[in-house]
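ok so for the tutorial part 2 we go from a plain amino acid sequence to predicted structure tokens. step 1 is just haveing the sequence, like this:
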Amino acid sequence: MKRIYVNENCCLGCKLCEYECMFAGSGLDEMFKLKGKLDRYVPKIKVEGDDGVDVHFAVNCRHCTNAICVQSCIAGALSKSDDGMVVIDKNKCVGCFTCVLVCPFGAIMPDASGKAAQKCMLCTDNGRDMPTCVKYCPNGAIVFEERD
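step 2 — the prediction. this is what the tokens look like for a chain of 148 residues:
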């Protein structure tokens, strides 16, 4: 399965992946209503030391092999697809957000309604061949490829 990999050393912190993700999932008319309800976000962390460097990194679902979010979902809303992707069935989600709490990457969050979980679906639900965040990353920090 192809997965998204992020090279934090190349991330500029421009947040273009956030905006492209938001636009791909909602459309222009909804884009600014969803601020803070993204499938991807880029936090900034201040690294202590002599130079006080800011580090940016893109947060997204890693589609883990043994995904703890799938194992802990009490409603069975999270599952692994045949191609290894972790998917959410929003019709089954009861909004307990256990998956949000257990995800070690902070990649699952409440949707705009606050009643169901959402996460990166690699833009496959929109019929794209490549995730939008990968396509528009100006520094090549986000890649979509097969790895062992």
